[in-house]
UniProtKB/TrEMBL annotation:
InterPro entries assigned to the protein according to its UniProt record, in alphabetical order: 2oxoglutarate_DH_E1 (IPR011603), DH_E1 (IPR001017), THDP-binding (IPR029061)
One GO MF term: oxoglutarate dehydrogenase (succinyl-transferring) activity
Matching SUPFAM superfamilies: Thiamin diphosphate-binding fold (THDP-binding) (SSF52518)
Name of the molecule in the record: OGDHL protein
Pfam families for the chain: E1_dh (PF00676)
Organism: Dicaeum eximium
Family under the similarity heading: Belongs to the alpha-ketoglutarate dehydrogenase family.
Lineage, highest ranks first: Eukaryota, Metazoa, Chordata, Craniata, Vertebrata
One of the protein's GO biological processes: tricarboxylic acid cycle
Essential cofactor(s): thiamine diphosphate
Length: 281
């Protein structure tokens, strides 16, 4: 499995979760063995100029914190983009580290129907309106090379338009949203026939008092004979034993019993985080 994350330029620079995730990327318990980050860099976050949105020259500079290689590529050149993506995939497969592809491009229209970019970025958008769209630019190149004919190109465009039109027509007939069709691997029985989620019902999860007492006793004992433990810790264990005896629980013992009952059924429990390793909780 190879993880690929798609980002916008403003989000990549501005969202804390990106920086936090980079810092997790090489930790032994959290690594995905390298993620490929693709940044669709249209050089304008909604309506914000880059100089008003971040302090560094490139939106991808946050990736430098883990020394990830960053490839800046002209998105108007599809073959260069493919080349760079191949290099990125090879890097990730060879070194199992994150890598970033910065697709330097532009957005032809507004952020949404209400946004007219000419209001806020008139100079930039005068330039964009002069740009030949990437599809036409690349098609002209392939036709000039003799790789495809004009007729083949026009047939492909017509075929694609037809697929979109047919899908749009079909969408008008859909009266019900089948949620399960949107799941890449449907969970059997999770949704009922007409596509609406059924109420979440849980089977009874109670266990016998005898088993709870057993877990409580184990949780308040020391597993090794003649093992000298810290006096503060022995007080905690003693209090836990007394609670078990008195049929009382606090949050910590309740959590212990929950984990213990799952472990008793042979189900592996993994706790993560530094505090777990130190035994803080």
């Amino acid at each position: 499995v190879m993880s690929i994350l798609l980002h916008g330029d403003a989000a990549f620079a501005g969202q804390g979760v990106v920086y936090e995730t980079f810092h997790l990327s090489d930790l032994p318990s959290y690594t995905t063995n390298g993620t490929i980050h693709v940044v669709v860099n249209n050089q304008i976050g909604f309506t914000t100029d880059p100089r008003m949105a971040r302090s560094s020259p490139y939106p991808t500079d946050v990736a430098r914190v883990v020394n990830a290689p960053i490839f800046h590529v002209n998105a108007d050149n599809p073959e260069a983009v493919m080349y760079v993506c191949n290099v990125a995939a090879e890097w990730r497969n060879t070194f199992n580290k994150d890598v970033v592809v910065d697709l330097v491009c532009y957005r032809r229209r507004g952020h949404n129907e209400m946004d007219e970019p000419m209001f806020t970025q008139p100079l930039m958008y005068k330039q964009i309106h002069k740009q030949v769209p990437v599809l036409k630019k690349y098609a002209d190149k392939l036709i000039a090379d003799g790789t495809v004919t004009l007729q083949e190109f026009e047939e492909e465009i017509a075929k694609y338009d037809r697929i979109c039109e047919e899908a749009y027509t079909r969408s008008k007939d859909n009266k019900i949203l089948h949620i399960k069709h949107w799941l890449d691997s449907p969970w059997p029985g999770f949704f009922n026939a007409d596509g609406e989620p059924k109420s979440m019902s849980c089977p009874p999860t109670g266990i016998s008092e005898e088993l709870l007492r057993h877990i409580g006793n184990v949780a308040s004992s020391v597993p090794v004979e003649d093992f000298k433990i810290h006096p503060g810790l022995s007080r905690i264990l003693k209090a836990r034993a007394e609670m078990t005896e008195s049929r009382l629980v606090d949050w910590a013992l309740a959590e212990y019993m929950a984990f213990g009952s799952v472990l008793k059924e042979g189900i592996h429990v993994r706790l993560s985080g530094q505090d777990v390793e130190r035994g803080t909780f």
